Amino acid sequence: MAEAQQNPQTQGQSLAPQSKAAEARKPAIRTLKSDVEEFFKTTKPSLAQIVSQEVTQAQYRYQKKEKEEGLKKYYILGVVAALVLFLAGGGALFWFSLKARPSQTTTKISAPSPFFATETSRTISVKAGDRLQFRRLLEDSVHERERVGTVKRIVGKIQDKTEERFISFSDFFDFWKIIPPSNLVSLVDSPIMVFIYYGSDGSRIGFAVRVRDGERAFKEFLSWESTMLGDFRPLLLNEQIGEIVAFFEDRTFRNIDWRYFKLSQEKDLGIGYTIFPAKNILVFTASKEAMETVINRLYSAR
Length: 302
What we know:
Blueprint: H1 2-25, H2 32-42, H3 47-100, E1 120-127, H4 131-142, E2 150-160, E3 163-166, H5 169-175, H6 182-187, E4 193-199, E5 202-210, H7 214-232, E6 249-253, E7 256-262, E8 270-276, E9 281-285, H8 288-300
């Protein structure tokens, strides 16, 4: 009996270590396989539950992916919109800066029609107020070699920043520091036509301009005669004036009256002016031959 009573204790003592050993043999790390085995041991899910769970997980993954793609799409759209706004703002700023900046492009202008025919033409362009450059270019044209009897038209342009214009009657006189009568300036009605006549005794500068009233313009020149030699001396360039035997005198060529101040006995040099009545054109030349050539060409241009 004593032994029988002691056996249960002994058996209990021997079972306890075995239970602990079994627990020790259980895996310490959970895996998907162990979880699935444990789930199927403790739960008996139906096929519908399994399918429902898979569908739910698939929907979750799809919604998550769609949300991520949507956020990515919004991010790209935001970057593109910011870039467009930046470029638009930069473009607008550039456009306004160009609009505010003075244009460097000079507008092309067409030369006015000449009053009479010329064999050649030369365009000289100077900055506003550059009197010396104008005179240098004009004198360079005077010294060019041309056939005797040739008339060359000089088209003068003035560049003032972005504006370009042809020289006026007043501009031409300013370049030579000549002060014409104020009443004469008010009568001028067209751009000035500057020309060079290439004669046998040298080249001579002249000009022509249309006036509103020919008789009044002629009277203004008559009143100017007393100081005209000194005032027009620069237009004679470096020509030497010979012995003066007469002051201004009347001349006539092809029924056109004109006034002439002869300045040399050896060569064709002087100061001559007239009004061509058909078109009220005032003509100035520095030689007798030049005046007669211009009158002939004015008749031809009628």
